[in-house]
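Quick illustration for those who missed Monday's session on complexes.
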Amino acid sequence: MTLPASARYVVVGAGIHGLSTAYHLAKELKARGTGSGADVVVLEKSTPGAGATGIACGVVRNNYFQPAMSELMQACVEVWESDPEAYHYHGVGYVALGPMVQESDLVAVFERQERIGYRSELIVGEAEVDAHMKRLFPDWRAQGVTVCLHEHQGGFAFNVESVMGLRDKCVEEGVQIHSYTEVTGFALGADDSVTAVETSKGRIAVGEQVVIAPGPWAQHFWRLLGLPDTIDVRTPAGETQHDVRMWTYWNLQEGEITVDPLMFATADGGAPPVIHLDTDAPLLTDDGQLVTDELWGIYYKRDRHGVQGGASPLKVDGDVQLDPYPSTTDVDPEFPDMWCAALSHAMSRFEGCRRLYKQARSGGVGSFTADNFPVFDYLKPNVYAILDSNHGYKMIGVGREVAKVLQGEHSSLLYPFRFERFATGDLHPVSNSPYPWS
Ligand SMILES: Cc1cc2nc3c(=O)[nH]c(=O)nc-3n(C[C@H](O)[C@H](O)[C@H](O)COP(=O)(O)OP(=O)(O)OC[C@H]3O[C@@H](n4cnc5c(N)ncnc54)[C@H](O)[C@@H]3O)c2cc1C
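Prediction with flavin-adenine dinucleotide bound:
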């Protein structure tokens, strides 16, 4: 496919956000009678799903302590539920379990979910949580868990297949997706608007707007647009932190065990919800070695060929070499011991699973903003940025909101993620979770 000389809308990046934006924009233009997918061109330096979307575990949940995240996630789950077949979405639910220190956070999340109409239930008390989990999984045996938020919506989707589903939807709407077309720069007009996008296959003039959805390559695009590496951040308390790095990196640690996926089923043989367990109970390997006696956490889900999940990510000092993505992943060599011990701690069916750990590359690098929450905003008069701070495979609905914003509408769901928040102090509240994305 030859690159057109111009396009009304240019979307950069064919991950979950770029493709969702392109698809919803095509539909939005058609519904308004002002255009169609033929007005939208997606530029991708590799192929669709080559970035973080293609390695995401695929967990879809609402559980966020921050009201704006939780409300946005509700809209995203609505999109997942709109076409489970095309998106390869499995609405099996999601269970978050935590120790005493997380009780107030999960109670607040549950109360908000009740208010916004997101289906979930809350169980408080060690014995009550244990009974709830044993009803689901009779071999449940995790210790130190006093609160459980059981979301009856959400679950997971198969990442690569869902990208293909979105790609097909784009193509059906007439959107052009140009693979192996790397964006190398932007030409700016007198008013600082982007007039053309420079690519490895030539220049494409921009009729109206550009959307960048570069995933972990956020810092690269930030610099291409002339934005600073460090910023001042005003805290909600009114203090100003100077020269805070805008972009940092974390290595996400994930892995899987090769087992018959059906061994991970609920008591009635049903598909299990995704499990996220945090606890401060001592973690021992099956042969009694202490792994940690500090707060630890894991998540896991049934996968096609086994059970897949992860643990807390590791912060990277300084910059990382992202390409070729994600071969730069640097997983803690002790991760398999920890994750398998934790699975066994949770359910006796996983006892001895360490020998079933799959020795394959897993996990990958994520790029995070100065406050670890997304920036969804215009960075130039006609350049809208979707920089999701690694929250976002689950955020398939962001593209639907962005499509409306591109047409001049206000999105109250995206407004809390404007870049200006760092200057005004309208930051998101921070939870007691050990993860940078909760
Ligand atoms: C190991 C791991 C597990 C994760 N698990 C989950 C999970 O379970 N649930 C969840 O919600 N989120 C998860 N995430 C986060 C999630 O994957 C990302 O937040 C999300 O996929 C980002 O989507 P994106 O479309 O912004 O970026 P990407 O999917 O990275 O897409 C960006 C695209 O831009 C392209 N690109 C880059 N530079 C250029 C250029 N110069 N020109 C043209 N194209 C370019 C890339 O090739 C890429 O295809 C996980 C992340 C990692 C790393």
